[in-house]
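Exercise 3.2. Students should predict the tertiary structure of the chain below and write it as structure tokens, then compare their answer with the key that follows.

Predict this chain's 3D structure.
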Amino acid sequence: MKRFLGLGEVIKKCPPLYREINRRRKWRLHEPGLRLPHKVFGNEYCAWAVPDGYLSRGSIVYAVGVGEDISFDSALANRFGCKVFSFDPTPIAVEFMNSLKLPEEITFVPIGLTSNDGITTFFTPQTKGFNSFSKVVDQTCGESSEIESETLRLASIMKRLGHTQVDLLKMDIEGFEYEVVDEIILSHTLPNCLLIEFHHLLYGFETQQTYNTVAKLLAAGYRIFWISDLGREYGFILGDGTDPILSLLRSGV
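Answer key:
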């Protein structure tokens, strides 16, 4: 029997319309300022862009925020053969990752990324079937309880794992992204490529917090090369437009 698409599915199949709708509801706050060839990896629910020619077998990727989806992590490991470290300290993610037979390119690390080293409080998912543990409770949603997990700053994670650099950092960390950006700028721990989901209009975060954080990243030398059609997921590359790395990426070398 033929299935007809719902209105939401039809709208998503028309990216210009979908982007405009998300602008109007204030989910999509920016547009890319840098034309950089890229490809999107991962499934519909965990899709992120990577500049063409950027990753290789020797690259180090930190993918922070697993939930129950490592389609992006797996895609990078399969395509480039690079080392991917997947981070998430929350119990749903730990159980999910322990149930998988991971390839040698992917290492699961059950700690979180925040602006401090120590034990951090997370709030359990407020919607049935969801797997995201958040920084704060969303007052518009259901009940939540607290758990505590180990978290570290980016520099502390790198030191623990013996890394002197991270080539790509992906963060889907449910509200912690704002403080993490402040910390990595302050500590000058800046990966060349940053992929971030911002959570404005969720959990009580205002759009101005995302505007402010993006402004800080631009001031630190990042440029936006990609934003998802939804508007929450951003791709940043470090460089001022004359950086040799950007010239190579633009040319596809």
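Discussion points: The helical segments are 7-12, 15-24, 71-80, 91-98, 154-161, 177-186, 207-219, 244-251. The chain has eight helices and twelve strands.
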